[in-house]
Known about the structure:
By secondary structure, the protein is an alpha/beta fold. The protein has helices at residues 3-15, 18-35, 37-70, 75-124, 133-177, 181-185, 187-225, 227-235, 238-293, 299-340, 401-408, 431-435, 452-457, 464-476, 480-484, 507-521, 537-550, 586-592, 595-616, and strands at residues 360-368, 378-386, 390-394, 416-421, 424-425, 438-441, 525-529, 555-560, 571-576, 579-584.
Amino acid sequence: MPKKEKKEKKEKKKRFDLKATVKNNAYALSFITRSAPSVLVVTLAVTLMSAVNSFLSSAYLYNYALNSLQRGAKVREILPMLLFIFLFSVAMQVIQKLADLYCDLKNQKITAYINDMMYKKAVEVELGCFEDPKFYDSFVVASSYAANCAFNVMGSLSRFLYVIANVAAVGTLVLTIDPIFIPLSCVPLVATLLFGKKRNNAYYEAYMEKRRATRKKDYVRRTFYLSDFSKEMRLTRMYKVMYGKMKESVDELKITSKKYGRKFMLFRFLYYFVNYQVVYFGSVILAAFKTIVKKTMLIGDCFVVINSLTTVAEDIDSVGKLTMDLSQNSMYVEEIKKFLEYEPKIPEDENAPLAPAPLELELKELTFRYPNAASDTLAKVSFRIKKGEKIAIVGHNGAGKSTLAKLLQRFYDPDSGEILLNGENIKTLRLSSYRRLFGTVFQDYGLFSATVAENVMLRGNLTDGEKEIAREALRKSDILDKVNSLPKGIDTPVTREFHEDGAVFSGGEAQKIAIARIYAMNPEIVIMDEPTSALDPIAEYKMYENMFEACKDKTVIFISHRLSSATMADRIYLFEEGKICEEGSHSQLLALGGKYSEMWHKQADSYLDTKEVGEDD
């Protein structure tokens, strides 16, 4: 047998390991016991009472009432028991509703606790994880099913307790009537034990195969309603490409459904045949024979057997199904554990020393390649940045400029080489402390559906003093007048996703809000990755003028493929194919007459041509 098939067989066997199933489901249940243990206690207590109520108001009530009347008892003699069962049932309804209300309130706390764990881990893991499809799949499962898995375990445990109590009570009653009916009720359990594992294996495999297609379908759906894509979808034929991808995902789902459909149909048929053909009709024929022909059963006993045996059979069958459900749930919990127990490659070490105020950053022989990439994105990059220097990293798109910014902030670690802060390797410093040195405007920055002030300060519950800092930052980025004109000023929500009166900003305006974050943070090192791509030349010049004025004593690293801003830098590094091909000041590089000079003149000529055309118009 090939190694791959052996591995797959081993994996399938592992999925139904009893010890792993118990361990994984206990892990999921611990989310509830740690966040709101009273919910589990209340749920199990009410479940036990519900089982007692079900037995009393169905099997026992009919057995007691019909048999008593057949034996000649008066109505008034059986009335007290009937009244007790009625009152118990009413009380149980009230208790159930109160318990549901209590658990609904507590469930929000449990969900918040689980989400908090998920989100903390999502922030903790390194950026590269989100570019790994396998890890991203685990994250999708973890974030989507973590709360469900915990509630599923509690639900299964509750159902298991209900079944055990109900089967014990009804089974004891049926046993006292005639033991011959007990084996009949056990038939579904045997069927479940024989076919349950195969059924759950098929369900899990089908889910895993559908997951990729479902993600693709969800992505296509987003492109039709998110504003990010709205203009292109209306002005181009891209919507047809998306239709094609939707069709692909639907076809993949159809293939999976077709692949497993016959199996699912067979499992459902077996369940129906065993429960309703074998058990129900078998119990009807046997009970009727004993009551009418043999006359060895009372009418109440006959009614209980016919009415209860199928229920008992379903309950016994559900024990096997619950075991299989827990086994299936365990598979999802395995993905959740994998995500939550993932050890970040760039961890936060609370015992590591705090990052010092930077005097100098040094890059030594930095080399980095993205997973599965054909070549290095950065190759043996070395240079120093002194405190207060203004450094420009320039070059064509794809030259490795943004990757350098990510390495500087330890979103990734280099494959070889090191980054030193004041002579110390940044890996030896506390991660959060080191990252707090930086204030960054990313090329793919994002505005959140929160207030303008919260978008600037990047936190909530702002004090009046913090709002004043946000106003000053917006003033420096030349967007305060626009913000002040909004209905609620800096308290105006951004986007209209949740607020009808939310503000919608143009690309340039949004970029200015992102730039305002730098002024508000007052970091030691400023990194600006293509910060002016949405700004016109005048706004760009003003932005840099304000930035350099505000950051006189700060280190500034700005990354751009537009060279107009590079004239303000103390030093310029021209990147090409992940390497530094030229370095120096603007005047030095122009005098060199190399690639920088060529790029500068091309961009200058292009700008002048555009200006002249505009003037002729």
